[in-house]
Specification:
eleven-stranded antiparallel β-sheet; 139 residues; 2 helices; mainly beta
Length: 139
């Protein structure tokens, strides 16, 4: 299952959120609640701990998106901090969404908290930003 639903970086065998990139460097941001081996070189900006590192030194840089079906209908799903799974309905039927207890509306979308064991056909699509960056910056 996917742990994070935003861009993450693996650097020195630890996982961070990805910040902005410029001039061959990228900001890595410590994930709140995670334990890290060191705080050396990290700036403290309010609740954030961040550090700029060379992109060439990254182990990985990617974003995972998880899709699944619930009751035969398609959803984009994401883990919540409390262990539940949030699910955003991407199917075409407002009637089906309302009949199955989804919250929301046709303008802002329908969503629901769904137990993980009720999800079917779970798939993860990974976007590999490091591979893309290396293609544009060979050598």
């Amino acid at each position: 299952m996917v742990t994070h639903t935003r861009e993450v970086i693996e650097y020195n065998n630890e996982t961070y959120y990805a910040g902005t990139e410029s001039d061959g460097k990228i900001w890595i941001v410590k994930i709140p609640g995670e334990t890290y081996a060191t705080d050396e070189g990290f700036e403290h900006c309010e609740d954030l701990r961040r550090k700029q590192v060379p992109i060439r030194e990254l182990d990985a840089w990617y974003r995972d998106e998880m899709t699944a079906k619930w009751r035969g209908q398609p959803f984009v799903v994401h883990p919540n901090r409390d262990g539940t799974m949030g699910a955003d309905y991407v199917g075409p039927s407002q009637v089906w969404a309302e009949d199955n207890g989804l919250e929301g509306d046709p303008y802002n979308g329908f969503h629901k908290i769904i137990p993980e064991d009720e999800l079917e056909d779970v798939q993860v699509d990974r976007t590999d930003y490091l591979a893309r960056w290396k293609e544009k910056n060979p050598g």
